[in-house]
TrEMBL record:
Keywords: DNA-binding, Endoplasmic reticulum, Homeobox, Lipid biosynthesis, Lipid metabolism, Membrane, Nucleus, Transferase, Transmembrane, Transmembrane helix. The keyword Transport does not apply. InterPro entries: HD, Homeodomain-like_sf, Lag1/Lac1-like, TLC-dom. This is Ceramide synthase 2. Residues 84-128 form the Homeobox domain.
Length: 389
């Protein structure tokens, strides 16, 4: 059964235009061609990336965070309560008013104490500034080096300047060593991101990021198998050209360097819009969707490849709307930049709430001295002034 499934999956009419097939990509006369089995190299590369990342975050990112003044505030821990812990883990992290009343009866906590417990418990699960800074530093380093390496690999290639050259001689295109390593390293990196998604900072666009990583891995793998390598290198270069600006803006944001963060984000927004909303759809997708049909009849691989590109373009539009909204708000009102693409939900309940809790507790002590004893978390003289979230 597996043999039949494999035979069906690798049939030539799915992967190549009519009249071409796997035999055309057999190595001969000193010429080397891309093969599907080459993709297994990406797995050990992904593992190496995971190891190098741990070393980088400890040896480079952490000292850099200290140098830039990133402070990792200690958070107050919620006291262990099995009833509340079970509710928090299995039902919801944000109980309704009705649920709060019920939990108050079960635990003997006042409403204020219960709200404080859930707030502290949520903050325990939130990533620290140091963790976010280290993650941004790692991505910044990779995207910057990948962009430089990609540019160096393509700077002397004719298809960087004339996109129609992507299809010159297709699919019998020799793989250059620079293309091989560019592909395997990019594929290994995105595979490592997918492997580490459970432990990375969970962002507002978490689902979109998963779709992006999966689509990118499929796109890189498929383009390698059918020798769409020239198009693939251009697509990777376009994507790497703006992402390191975003990660550097995040680093300065976590360090509290507001002006640097704001202006770098504006540069990122400009480059993102030009590369993802103009160059990518009107140049690259045009040359993968329109031009190839003048050379050969459309086949499954043609539709599949362009379908993945359209998925990426939809994500680009989704992110561009958020990015433009932030940029306009900054340019018109000079407000602080908060990246709605990734960071808004991370900072809604930050360490500032710990200060509020301390003020709340100190205020409660003052009220006790002024108004007498408290009952169920509220002063006897004024039971209507309880704080709610």
């Amino acid at each position: 059964m597996l043999s039949a499934l494999s035979e069906w999956f690798w049939q030539e009419r799915l992967w190549f235009p009519e009249g071409l097939g796997w035999a055309d990509l057999e190595d001969r006369d000193g010429r080397v061609y891309a093969k599907a089995r080459d993709l297994w190299v990406a797995l050990p590369i992904a593992l190496i990336f995971l190891i190098v990342r741990q070393i980088f975050e400890r040896a480079v990112a952490t000292p850099l965070a200290s140098l830039l003044g990133v402070k990792d505030t200690a958070r107050l821990k919620a006291p262990y309560n099995p009833t509340l812990e079970s509710y928090y883990c299995n039902i919801t992290k944000n109980p309704t008013q009705t649920s709060i009343a019920s939990l108050c009866k079960q635990t003997g906590y006042s409403e204020r104490q219960l709200q404080r417990w859930f707030r502290r418990r949520r903050n325990q699960d939130r990533p620290s500034l140091l963790k976010k800074f280290r993650e941004a530093s790692w991505r910044f380093t990779f995207y910057l080096l990948a962009f430089i390496a990609g540019l160096a690999a393509l700077i002397d290639k004719p298809w960087l300047y004339d996109l129609k050259e992507m299809w010159e001689g297709f699919p019998v295109l020799t793989v250059l060593p620079s293309q091989y390593w560019y592909y395997m390293i990019e594929l290994g990196f995105y595979s490592s991101l997918l492997f580490s998604v459970a432990s990375d900072v969970k962002r507002k666009d978490f689902k979109e990021q998963i779709v992006h990583h999966v689509a990118t891995i499929l796109l890189i793998s498929f383009s390698w198998c059918v020798n769409y390598i020239r198009a693939g290198t251009l697509i990777m270069l376009v994507h790497d050209s703006s992402d390191y600006f975003l990660e550097s803006a995040k680093m300065f944001n976590y360090a509290g360097w507001r002006n640097a963060c704001n202006y770098i984000f504006i540069m990122f927004a400009a480059i993102f819009i030009v590369t993802r909303l103009i160059i990518f759809p009107f140049r690259i997708i045009y040359c993968t969707w329109v031009y190839p049909v003048t050379i050969y009849e459309p086949f499954f691989g043609y539709y599949f490849f362009n379908g993945l590109l359209m998925v990426l373009q939809c994500l680009h539009i989704f992110w561009a709307v958020l990015i433009i909204r932030i940029a306009v708000r900054f340019l018109t009102n000079n407000e602080k930049v908060d990246d709605e693409r990734s960071d808004k939900d991370e900072t809604d309940e930050s360490e500032d709430e710990e200060e509020e809790e301390e003020e709340e507790e100190n205020g409660g002590k003052k009220d006790m001295k002024k108004n007498g004893p408290v009952q169920n978390g509220h002063t006897v003289h004024n039971n209507n002034h309880s704080k709610t979230e």
